[in-house]
């Protein structure tokens, strides 16, 4: 059988689908969200002003996450059980929530990261 024969329609040999578990492919297993994650998110919302939620969809390397960004750009990200859970959490805590895949992440978060990085550099030089 030639190399390209396996890709032709009607070929008798079929390629196997993706593995249903991480063991066969050697990939890492992803930790599920837990009560500690939920508590951390709740504490962040209660301690910060102007918080917005950005729901990040599941990827090849992580489960669904909720990114919370305060008015000054300070942020936190934790795994959550589902997209619906993340939006419900935000609604319950009166935090506006957005689909990060559609709106992206806010500029103030990137600005905050730049400020923190610059402060660490300055502290390292002194």
Condensed summary:
The protein is 40% helix and 14% strand. It has 126 residues and is an alpha+beta fold.
Structural features:
single chain, 126 residues, four-stranded mixed beta sheet, 5 helices, extended
What does this structure look like?
The N and C termini lie far apart (67 Å). The protein has a 4-stranded mixed sheet with strand order 3-2-1-4. It has helices at 22-25, 35-47, 83-92, 100-103, 107-125, and strands at 52-56, 65-69, 75-79, 97-99. β1 (52-56) and β2 (65-69) form a beta hairpin. It is α+β, with helices and mostly antiparallel strands and 126 residues long.
Number of strands: 4
**What order do the strands of the largest sheet run in, or round the barrel if closed?**
3-2-1-4
Distance between the termini: 67 Å
Helix-strand string: HHEEEHEHH
Low-confidence stretches: 15-19, 21-26
Mean pLDDT: 84
